[in-house]
Design brief:
Helix content: over 70%
Strand content: under 5%
Oligomer: single chain
Mean pLDDT: 76
Structural class: mainly alpha
Number of helices: 3
Number of domains: 1
Length: 61
């Protein structure tokens, strides 16, 4: 289960980083910034999966 979570987070981070790189072709964004944002989003995804954070929980319902 834990390997699935890490794999999913890495995959999502890679997708987000590549999408940000492709969408920022005209903007002056460094590769380090894209990798950094992708890593943060991947970590947030892992935290949401690990702690079972849902929209209901975030909304206080």
């Amino acid at each position: 289960m834990k390997n699935d979570t890490i794999t999913l987070a890495a995959l999502l981070g890679t997708i987000v980083a590549s999408a940000a790189f492709l969408l920022s072709s005209q903007a002056q964004v460094s590769v380090e910034a894209i990798v950094g944002y992708g890593s943060v989003i991947a970590l947030l995804g892992v935290a949401a999966l690990e702690y079972r954070i849902s929209w209901k929980w975030l909304g206080g319902l």
